[in-house]
Task: inverse folding
């Protein structure tokens, strides 16, 4: 973004746990609101980029698939034959979660 927002830290008396909890809760809420604001700006910029790509004629297709349909079918067949899933994921250059996503899709 290029700018910062200072969070003034209040002095918290150690003998008042209720106030310290309330102030800590306020700080967490404020940090959460700031994060939500930044995410809204990020989504807005992404939507602007997609709109620009569409006006230029570039089709926005999202992320490129990690495996081709042929690779995915080979992966499912090899997993069905009992090969270790960790070794398959390493060979195809994908995470185990992506591997399981392809296996569930079958």
Result:
């Amino acid at each position: 973004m290029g700018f910062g927002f200072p969070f003034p830290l209040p002095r918290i008396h150690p003998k008042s746990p209720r106030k310290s909890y309330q102030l800590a809760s306020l700080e967490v809420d404020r940090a959460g609101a700031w994060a939500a604001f930044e995410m809204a700006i990020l989504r807005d910029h992404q939507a602007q980029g997609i709109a620009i790509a569409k006006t230029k004629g570039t089709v926005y297709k999202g992320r490129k698939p990690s495996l081709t349909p042929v690779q995915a079918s080979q992966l499912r067949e090899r997993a069905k034959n009992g090969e270790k899933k960790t070794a398959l994921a390493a060979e195809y250059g994908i995470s185990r979660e992506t591997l399981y996503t392809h296996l569930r899709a079958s």
Q: What stands out?
A: The chain has a mean pLDDT of 84. Residues 26 and 32 are 10 Å apart (CA to CA).
